[in-house]
Amino acid sequence: MTVYLVGSGPGDPGLMSVRALELIAAADVIVYDRLIPPGALDGARPEAELIYAGKEGGGPSMPQSEIDELLVSRGLSGGLVVRLKGGDPFVFGRGGEEAEALRAAGVPFEVVPGVTAGVAAPAYAGIPVTHRGAASAVAFVTGHEDPDKPGGSAVDWDALAAFPGTLVFYMGVRQLESIAAQLVASGRVASQPACVVERGTLPGQRVVVGTLETIAGVAASAGVRAPALVVVGEVVALGERLDWWSASRPLAGVSVAVTRARAQASGLAARLRELGASVVEAPAIRIVPLDGPAPDVSGYDLVCLTSPNGVETLFARLSARGLDARALAGARVAAIGPGTARALASHGVIADVVPERFVAEGLIEALAELPVSRALVARAASARDVLVDALRDRGAEVDVVALYETVASPLGEVELAAVAAADYVTFTSSSTVRFLLESLGGDGAGSGLRGRLVSIGPVTSATLREHGLSPDVEAARHDIDGLVEALIRDVTASRSR
Ligand code: SAH
Question: Which CATH fold would you assign to the domain 255-284+409-496?
């Protein structure tokens, strides 16, 4: 069968082609590189054989000749083989060599071009590689070679210095100083704008700008690392005016750990990624629905729900008894916050009461005027009693039904190290605090957390303090939007400090 040499684009998963996704989904074997987009293999079949052929650090983990042999042997054995490479397979990807090996062995192949980093990374930095008046040509150059190599390098520096357009160097960060010096020595103007785009199109994208004369120093002091591209030419100056990327990404370059349960984390994680953050997913807790009969809701004049999980588990129990939203028809329904209200709405119930402050105390205030004689509080197994106590103090008869419990979800070494190193760690409930610290194996300084701690509200903040930590940021609105807002405010403030 055919071997497909497929480009996966520069890093942003949205820049993978339709054809690439189709082939990944159909592949029996995928031989992939290091620089493929995060999640690029998510669509592969569970039975597909995934073979890593990338490089860690400097050295190749699998020699090119072995990769060639592997592609030939898998190609001959008959399945659908995808060779997945970063960017475009024929731009500095050794795809040409692999195609030659396949042709020599008589294995049919097809090429699926990808968006190459040399165009995409500058574009995400607001730099058009060609521009009327500023550059009528663009050259893609390997920066891998040391220009001072004895015996001379394969790159014609005089020709490059004289090239009438933009120069884009791949693999050039390590050699940046000698590349810049060599261009100037060969006659390129030292004051010409130059920049380095690090991790272009990815959440951690960074751009450092200078001139041919200064760029090596600027990049070194910024600690720029591979993968990065060096762009030299007048078009670089356009980046300042045309930057569209960082404008909508106030969290660019910031790593944020999300500790809530995996089932609920995706919304928050997606939001943070859209804002440019790199997200460390570290679900410290797991929600386990408790078995039990559906409560008989007909006898209550008030039903209180204190979390979206409570809503989901309540409706699961009702539906197990063949009931639906109409079971709540006789009661007023109170939600602790807008997330809980949204969960209710998705089951066809519009909450009668949603407080201004999304904590139990806020709900108590909001219920102050409401006559209540029998109330049902549906909630987690180990929740605070303030709401129940307050309703009882008002003379109401209160039943509590525990619908689910929150349990620890132990984290692996890699996840824990990433949380400890994250710039921000978000806590969306007291249980995320307790169980993350349990996983980390210590309170206070013993937790090893280095980043700023963001709490969703006063209850979570108090739990942090109980564990010897102080919240650096507390959301003014105690829900996910409020938490994100507070985080953005803190990052923006720290940038102007
Ligand atoms: N075939 C790839 C290039 C492979 S060579 C393509 O077409 O894009 C690897 C080099 O590409 C890296 O050293 C770096 O210079 C560049 N590169 C790849 N991904 C990049 C990214 N997201 N941001 C900046 N440079 C990148």
Answer: Rossmann fold (3.40.50)
